[in-house]
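Dear colleagues,

As part of the handover before I leave the project, I'm documenting each prediction I ran so the next person doesn't have to rerun anything. This entry is a single chain, and its sequence is reproduced below.
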Amino acid sequence: MYSSIQKWLLRSTLAVSIALLGSLLYRTPWFQELEYRGLDLMFFLRGEEAPPEDIILIAIDEESYNTLQVPMHKPWPRELHAQLLERLARAGAERVIFDVIFGGPSGDQETDQRLASAFGLLPTVIGVEVAPVAGEVEREEVYLPYQSFQKTVGELSIVKKRTDKRHIRRFTPEFTDPASGIRYRSLAQAGANLRAGSPLPDENDLIWFYGPSRTIKTYSYSDALDEEFFLDEEFTGKTIFIGLALQTDTGPAQKDAFLTPFTSRGDTFGVEIHATAALNLLHSQWLQRFPFSTEALYYGIATMLIALALFALPPGYGLLLLIATIFGWSSFAYFSFTREMTFVPGITLTAIIAPVIYLIATVLSYLLARKRQRQTERAFSHYLTPEMAKEVSQNPDALNLGGETITATALFTDIADFTNISESMDAEEVVRMLNEYFSEVMDAIFETRGTLIKFIGDAVFALWGAPVPILDHEAQTVATAIKIRERVVAFNEIGKYPKLHTRFGIHSGPMVVGNLGSQRRFDYTAIGDSVNLAARLEGLNKYFGTEILISETVANKLSDAFPLCLIGKVAVKGKSQAVSISTVVPTEVSEDDRKLWEFALREFYARNWDECSDGFHALTERKSFFDTAAHLYLQQISIRRDSETSDWDGEITFDSK
């Protein structure tokens, strides 16, 4: 059985171990991907929101290829780029960002020259790519655009680093070319064109997506060229992002689409992601996230606290805590997301780690409960029937030190004249006799759902009503005494051992019942005045010549099925008030003897000394069941006849235990 300290140490060790494991798992790509899936769900629940109108997209899409009759297997004509730039310059566009790579000459020098001139008409940004050096994964280099274009564009910016990941969430960072030392901003930074010192997202911060593809105002390239279709005012003062928006891969016109939180409604094109990031920067509304090390620390602490709580609570309350944790995190995370634009990870904790902890806690609770139940069952099997022991073992506190005050019925038995009997026998024979005798007694006790508290030499202490409640515990106790008496008669008829006569004392009342002792050794027992009185009544049998003595409290609870007879009132040591006691009259006692006894006892209480004396003398002459008791009362008559006191109520006083 585990002590409280051992349980605390076990729970703490498990909680810390799980917290460390949780922190390690949190750092894995798999867990991070799950956290991002949780973030995608928050975007989905938030839904689409209107983006700022500072930026317009011009998409090189299938419609533009068809309208402008550009073959899909050829690069987009640079002449069209020049025409578009000239139109945007006339319209008063503020800035143009190309998510397009202009790698080298087109083969048409005149067209290249026209485009180079168009780049100079207004602030224009074109992209450069960064990729690993062939054969050197550790080292990266910048692939610059055509030399003529570099001279006329406003800025060269990083399009993106080549990656196998299709799910874009973070901002493309700045890049410094290790060869030249030149620092390149990302397309988003160039598009926002922030002043020096403006706040920028941290490495861990995320893009705040406004919605699915085409959420930002988007025009087809062919429509943007059509001055009759669009007025110049559409582009005045706007930052224009230009890039591919194709649904399929066809030749040089490669599909440039990525997964975002709104992918369920279609992929988002790379140029849209750059434009979204630029709007985030312009309006300082990106999704903030704590440093990864801080998240891992908080994740571990939260895991440990949840584990400690779940290990300490019963499974039912643990389930409520688990549900509360899930709803609590969900509410807090979504509030932080929508109101504070802060990402609070934790879906892996609430959806995976916490349920696993709850499962472990439930299994541990079950195993510990089963172990404790088996220990309780084994402990109480010494006192109870296997069925009752199993019933008691369902109570998790059954083996705790301490007691409770209940009303139960105690029974004490003793073998009459056992000292003389044992002196006439060998010690081993005495042991064999007692073992067989106790087996008979124990079987009778268990038949009526009694609790065998202990053997005391040749005596037995038993209880009814604890630890398993019994409604008619008084009747069951008396019935057991009668059964034991019958079993002892049968035991004597075998003739194997000297004849035994068992005496019983029975009383019912409040008593303290429970495990008493120390943490290292304790016994299930009962203590109190009620227990002491039952023991005293057993000892009085030798004075009255009876076998079973029961208190008035017990007698009042019995039905007429029990042949009871009032024996008298006794004042025993340790009790301030006299107690009326009765006996169970054997069936062989005649009705005349019983009526004569009742008559003599009534006259005794009435202090009619001559009449009661005649009655008791008659009983002694008959050698009846009441012979010993009649002699006792004759002695009391001789004492009381000459020393009557007004406060005497007919009780017989016994000063010895």
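Residues 450 and 464 are 5 Å apart (CA to CA). The mean pLDDT is 88.

All the best with the project,
I.
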